[in-house]
Amino acid sequence: MNLPTTPARGRRLPALLAAALIGLAGAATAADTERVQSVTHVSPGALPERCVMLARMPDGRYRDADDDTERTLCAIDFYAGTHALCPQLSGSRPDTLVYDLVGGPYASRMADFEREVCPRGATAVFGLVRDASALQMAVQTRETPAAAANAAVLYYHFARYFETELRVPPAVLRSMDRAQHLQRVARRGEAAAEPSLPQALRASWAALAGAERDPSRYAQADELFSADRQQVYGALLRPEGRRSRSGFGPLGPNHAEFQKSLPFVALTSDQPLAQALRQTLGSGPTEAAPALDVSELQLALWMREMVDITLLDALLGPQGRVGEVDRLEHWAWVERGLLLQRRATGPQPPEDIAKFAPRLVARSVLDNVEAGLRGGAASQRQDVLERLRHYDVQTYRRLLELAAEFDQRGALYRHVRASYGLGAADLDRLAGNIRQAAATLRASCRAGRLRFDLDPEAVARGDTSEEAKVDCGNP
To answer: Disulfide-capable partner of 456 in 135, 191, 225, 300 (CB 3.0 to 4.6 Å)?
Structure first.
């Protein structure tokens, strides 16, 4: 199948990379595609590799930094000598780590870095590079979970539609010459997959390398390769967080452990928010959060982020979650009645905000999604929504708006269908997930079980959070 094209900024651009991967259901409107842009890089094999910045969700809250990040990602030329490509040698998925070498000891020494540093894993790169991005591709084996290459893209744009407090990094779609990826990355990942590495990771790198050698022998070739099988495809993003044994995660992709986490315990409390916070924190250390000094503000922020995570997961359906939540430290303070935050770079607050007595809080980051719309346990994810007793009012209203748009095949439905690489089956699954999530939360609202009092800013000010009045059936 050929690359489809859509109008953008007065010219025709390749849209969403490959129909074999993205399953475009129809052409986007001119308004939808006004912002669709692509950048082309040429491989040593003379193949045009494309990076595509996708159309944005109508009424989504995007930041200036999102645009900067998308453009920076798409500007990366894998062959200019400025970036090295390494196989990821931890976790369970065969991501390609893209390291920026500019200004470091390996500047202009791409081949040396890939030969000398990549085989030693991520711990070997500290002090040698500026930052790293990740190319996440769809690779599936019996030992690894189902995957969708556009999962990170879906989470990014849906997070901006719901205006989440959860941090979800921008993601673009990117192609790469299959032969080049095999030579520089997949073969090294396969060779490094020794018994000390997780079985799922060893299986993933073996499967990817084998598929790139002979795409005809890989069952899910349409989700990994271009129609002519000369390029591989994936989502390119810049992970922001780091793993931590906080009260939120990682707890492992285990439903029982998930339910023991502090924010979930508080979210399922029938008490008003202030009492739910005190009750949860007053219960002392738990199996999920041993010996943690957690403030009411920290817990309220985690609760708000977990509302985002549980909703996105209910709609987009990964196989596991809690162990895949990273964190970033921020300083949080109240100024002129507003809760403000800034990324923390050390243990002491910056001088310009020290007078406000800022508190160090951990914010959640969703850097890794294993299987957008391909994961199992859908009923389990909906059960999580049914158990929630505290919610964000704007998130609820946006969900009802989205559900109405999908039911009526309105503008939002048409935008999602045209813009984010969903085939007919995935689009139907998404529509069903949206309908079920809206019905679940609407039922809780109508039964009086759902309190719309989740306001971390009120907690930071020391106010009693007032419950918002909501029409349960209308956006």
So the answer is: 300
